[in-house]
Predict the structure.
Amino acid sequence: MISLKNFINGELVAPLEGNYIDNYNPSTGQVYGKVPDSTDRDLQKAIEAAKSAFPEWSQMSIDKRSRYLMKIADLIEANIGRLAEAESLDNGKPVSLARRVDIPRAAANFRFFAAAIVNDSTESHIMEGQAVNYTRRAPLGIVGCISPWNLPLYLLTWKIAPALATGNCVIAKPSEITPYTAFLLSELIIEAGLPAGVLNILHGRGAVIGQSIVQHEEVKAISFTGGTETGRLIGKLAAEQFKKASLELGGKNPVIVFDDCDFEEAITTSVKSAFTNQGEICLCGSRIFVQNSIFEKFKESFVKQVNDLTVGDPKGDVNLGPLVSDRHLQKVEQFVENGRSEGAEILIGGKRLDQEGYYYLPTVIAGLDEYCEINQEEVFGPVVTLVPFEDEADAIAKANSTKYGLAAVIWTNDLKRAHRVAHQVQAGIIWVNCWMLRDLRTPFGGMKSSGVGREGGNDALRFFTEPQNICIKL
Ligand code: TXE
């Protein structure tokens, strides 16, 4: 049994009330570990530690702060294998995917923001003959970083790294469903010699310790990634205290396939964009709109490729592992059942794997319009729908028909059309003829109910600092 600890003031400590939550292995459905069920008492300790660490950390030279982050990146890279196995054990994703994507990206996050802060600059505005204004960007103080279970270390570090780089002290709360890599990160942070109290990691339930972090008056900003309803609540609670909040929420991303696209590439990439990480990525393309003229051909080729995907033990050579939890499996299953009663044609999948663990087969659905539940709500699993469209205007209307607006993919070789459509699709991130190509300097985040705020390079540096204008009379 693996028993995790909180990371407070540079030390790994048990929760003060002594309570734990069970941690399940999704590939067996068995409990494999215990997660601290932290309370306000633990939070108070973390706040005190962060408060006393802040003066030194915030005034440290940027170069020195950057070196700490670089060191953490190096240690993550040196432990890729161990971290990838831990991430798979918690989340169910194939170990190979965690090794290739999640863990290297966590290291890249630290490295990116270590470099970004060294290269950052602030503005000055000159009033000729009268005055010079310059902008100072001050860290906020103590900030809260709350992350979800789908890309556990990758998303946690995407928040922690810019917060630390800009001189803040952090109280982080990973998802209680996938806490193991955050715990291993705290061990690496000790090895990196980060000053005590600069980063504190509290484990536990969202509605308990997560909400306490959001509401604590010493916490000046919240960076959150998770479900839209949780984000709505956090946004409200933060607003009551005039706290900054960056909310990265759900998506129901359209993939628009025009008949002039590179057909094979569109198929192969659309299979990836639908089923990578069991479809549990906010950027997954879960609604595929295909132009009428190629709909039948696309359907046939797509299903054929999905049929080749392997599902099974995430330690093996598989494309998909189990879903993250029993609760999530039931939720995905319910969406498909509701779809069936709305007249869905299940082209492939549509059921669990008949074995222990939370496995669900990659599922392709046709025969439903854009307004049915499964095309409106975030399923967040290995379920994709195929819907035909007539022309450009029809594709855009269908793509924009949900409350979400995170990402979209457009497949076409017509340059003008690509721009035209991209400018009309309501999504914060648009990929043309590709998916998931990420440049960490670019704005990252969604429109509509997919959230507020952007977490790309400069946006993150701005979020975690407060501008102060200093005007000097000449
Ligand atoms: O996420 P929650 P859940 C979507 C996806 C999924 C749904 C619900 O559709 O099915 O959200 O997932 C913490 N105050 N996404 O319920 O609850 C929680 O402990 C403060 C999309 O697992 O939003 C965890 O650390 N914190 C998504 C984090 O919030 C609270 C990724 C996310 O959990 C809290 C994951 C509270 N009141 C799910 N309640 C994406 N955008 O990538 C919970 N938390």
Summary: The chain has a mean pLDDT of 98.
